[in-house]
Here is the input.
Amino acid sequence: MKKNIAIFISGRGSNMEAIAEQTRNGILRDVCNVAVVFSNRPSAEGLKTAGAFGVPTECIPSAGKEREAFDREVLERMKFYRPDYIVLAGYMRLLSPRFVRAYRRRIINIHPADSRFYQGLEGYAWAFRENLPRTCITVHYVDEGMDTGEIIEQRELDIRGMESLEEVERAGLALEHRMYSEVLKKVIERDSKNV
Ligand code: GAR
Here is the structure.
């Protein structure tokens, strides 16, 4: 049985788009449906992209709201879509303990760096600035911390010789786009076998 996923974004939504494409014509076709794309920012470009894709979209602005109260609203809204998984794709907000409990081991995030060494925003800028030979893109379960949950899979990106941050980001995002759908497929299929 195909699972429902809700994809949470705050901005561009390129990972969301890559996943949505894979559910339509690719490796996620028999694995999951995108039940909804949710954003905490009305101006998130990805909302338009999702709409054009024919995927339902929802937005609850988080600006100025207290975390617990905001997440309660989001949880309430999600009841309508009944997602089996919450897939964070550039969702720039910490989740409250209540939210994490509601979807324990069913919230997944992608982070552009090795989450054991770097958390938060601008992971590519960090790797580039520090002159690292490689960055390690991480897909992990989400807990109450920022980019701290159990690691599911990591893939290395060799950034030696790359001359600008834009070049690093371009290569990194291309890897993220492939990797995220592949890891989601593994997780969902593994969970489905174990029930
Ligand atoms: C991606 O690079 C993702 O790894 C990163 O935000 C970007 C979102 O791009 N996430 C984090 O930094 C989480 N700490 P997108 O909106 O085009 O998918």
Summary: The mean pLDDT is 96.
